[in-house]
Amino acid sequence: MDQRPTAAEIIKSIGDPTDYPEIVFCGFGEPTIRLKVLLEVAKFIKSKGVQVRVNSDGLANLVHKRNVLPELGKYVDAISVSMNAQNKEIYDRHCQPALPHSYESMLDFLKQAPHYINDVTATALDGLEGVDIKACEELAIQYGVKFRKRMLGRVG
Fold this sequence. Notes:
Number of strands: 5
CATH superfamily: Aldolase class I
Shape: globular
Order of helices and strands: HEHEHHEHHEHE
Strand order of the largest sheet: 1-2-3-4-5
Strand content: 15-25%
CATH topology: TIM Barrel
Structural class: alpha/beta
Helix content: 25-40%
């Protein structure tokens, strides 16, 4: 892509949302960075009765300097948050976040998300050096969210 598509362009590219059981916002960077566009497109999708899922790094509140979960909760049925690690040290090693306090912000986002979005899942990659999948799963349980182990080198 040579430009960031507008909400209208994204909606046009979707066509009839009812052709799909679910539409997922993911890839090409973090979808919540362009929150206004995400919300506009998600609102359109929901108006057609189609499920909306977002795959996120969980840093939206940090990036936007406010709690965006109430806005997401209006149109998002499910969110998957890349927890990626059981502690800040391992998270910082693999994610190399640009913003300070990213790990803590991601955990706070994960903890708050179930108050606004019905289906919340934390994920981590099995196979990354130092990542303790069991500890990640225990954190997810502690925050009242589902957990899904992803496998390093496998898409999906």
